[in-house]
């Protein structure tokens, strides 16, 4: 029974949005350019986000968490605000959720007891998810990493890319094909057959350390399989919606920055914003950011109500994927030559924004 | 609290309206496209149904709040955009032909006093704004209204009037004082049959052919003094004009929902046709793993959803007493443009099936084009949005 529709934030949602927005404003906006150039962000900023307790809230009290449950809609708000600052920061800060949420929702009691308590700590605990693969036309439903049952173990073989913090993550969830479906497997750090490669150099996310991870007859106990054959469907709806939320944040950043620039930049004796060719691009950016956000909220609302959100999450992601490219492109274009220089953030939005349509599961709601 | 899953009561409304559109409008869609201007007598069954209702008067002190404490309201605007989307999935031109549901009716319901409502409330009312020399620039109209004792005398020419033939009264925009500019523009109810009020001709159009669009000439047309809608006084501000323009904040989402309805019809038909060819649309694979046709179809489906959500938001805000000028234009800008692009693309993807008049796809392509033109062109919508978000005046951003 769905009673009402609402486009307004609740007090709690408003509060969370304000809190994260302020945190990003105070810790990320001025620093991100240097982080990006240095290929490393300031872990203190991540720690400040950790201290908001968003990850710990997802964990039930019996495992040491705050037991607040988790709200997919609230998480889209959080991700948009984080990504407004920077996508690398957003992925980094929310990364533990990619491990924790699946364990909380799909895990056996044994798995919960084993893994959840260690995330209820005062400082950031790295954990990650390995899903993408470095192949042309990568299909997440048909990945090349395979799992094979051998006795009371699973043996993983394959190669993953774009695995954030794989070097320090204590645990990772690996997506591998098994009996015709993608499945989730928990692999602990230092498991034999698991090797983390050199840090990757990608088009974007310069402040985020990502790695190629290889599984060579990597053998894990059978109790490390997380959930059943429906687990991946559970995961992909939440990660696609999360990618859409990140796309909304990047696009909004591109929109806000180029809007401000267009009013300040003088050519022919007046601000370039007073020309319709520029003004109309800004108008389009304004409603497309909103459209992206509404599609994201709709998918998150469906997930929050416990409904199947296969279509909604897919549409939210492909829409955000296409529009983020368009809007980050507009951002660079409005700044012209200046937009191409790394002193302005629009080129970073452009590089990071490209990944929304390409990658899966860099975050979760 | 944000909640965008379609509520059950809206689903019920959608289902009911969809049955009506499918059962009554679709079967006669082609017939009245070909029989241009002929009144669709099948629509008489809707005469008793109040498509437009007068919004309840606000209580003193009731103001808009965006807070969550107040429960979201179930208002007329959201119900209306939902209904219109379904009807236009059936046929947009027929929706525009619904008895007693003209734009003039919206204007009368919004601003008429009780006495006027008594006289005109049950009459089919068209709206006459556009003139040969005043399209988007509706502040530049030259039709005049001159006071003569207990009468107004109207002179001028009005074009592109929807329901020109079928309407019983027409709400005519005219200036009472050209020097006063926009402040001098008022609206007047002119009854059919008034001497000096002539329906000159009906237009032959690219699409929405079932809708009777026409030209009126007003030549010393004498109407009672109290046929003026709203305040007769010319104030030295444009508040009055802005008030009239505010009607558009409510009507633009309606046009956006019309656009959404047509685009959805085309997208659904394209899917059905491709499924017959063995395509499956399961919303799972990456766009880089599907055929070009599937990729395009998915993106069109996502765009229809975006059009709808922007429209629903604008309507929902109106229902919750929030100023929605920006959001109404966003819905109209997006939906008007994308309805055109989507129906064009569907027609192309369908090939000969998208061009033959044995099917409706070519008609949807013609019908949808008007959605980016009337109630403010796409360009005007972008201008409104840009001025709003850039916080620039009409002088700073022309």
Descriptive overview:
The complex is a heterodimer of chains A (365) and B (398). Chain A is of the alpha+beta class. Chain A has three domains: 109 residues, Acyl-CoA dehydrogenase/oxidase, N-terminal domain (Butyryl-Coa Dehydrogenase, subunit A, domain 1, Orthogonal Bundle), CATH 1.10.540; 99 residues, Butyryl-CoA Dehydrogenase, subunit A, domain 2 (Beta Barrel), CATH 2.40.110; 119 residues, Butyryl-CoA Dehydrogenase, subunit A, domain 3 (Up-down Bundle), CATH 1.20.140. Helices cover 50% and strands 16% of the residues of chain A. Chain A has 13 helices and ten strands. In chain A, the strands form three sheets. Chain A has a four-stranded mixed sheet, covered by helices on one side. Chain A has a four-stranded antiparallel sheet with strand order 2-3-7-6, covered by helices on one side. Chain A has a two-stranded antiparallel sheet with strand order 9-10. The radius of gyration of chain A is 20 Å and the shape is globular. Chain A starts with 10 loop residues before the first helix and ends in a 7-residue tail after the last helix. The model of chain A has no long low-confidence stretch (mean pLDDT 97). With 398 residues, chain B is of the alpha+beta class. Among the domains of chain B are: 106 residues, Butyryl-CoA Dehydrogenase, subunit A, domain 2 (Beta Barrel); 152 residues, Up-down Bundle (Butyryl-CoA Dehydrogenase, subunit A, domain 3). In chain B, 43% of the residues lie in helices and 13% in strands. In chain B, strands 1-4-5-8 form a four-stranded mixed sheet, with helices on one face. A four-stranded antiparallel sheet of chain B has the order 2-3-7-6, with no helix packed on it. In chain B, a hairpin with a 2-residue loop joins β2 and β3. In chain B, α7 runs antiparallel to α10, α8 packs antiparallel against α9 and α9 crosses α11. Chain B is globular, with a radius of gyration of 22 Å. About 3% of the residues of chain B have low confidence. The interface between A and B is large, with 59 and 57 residues.
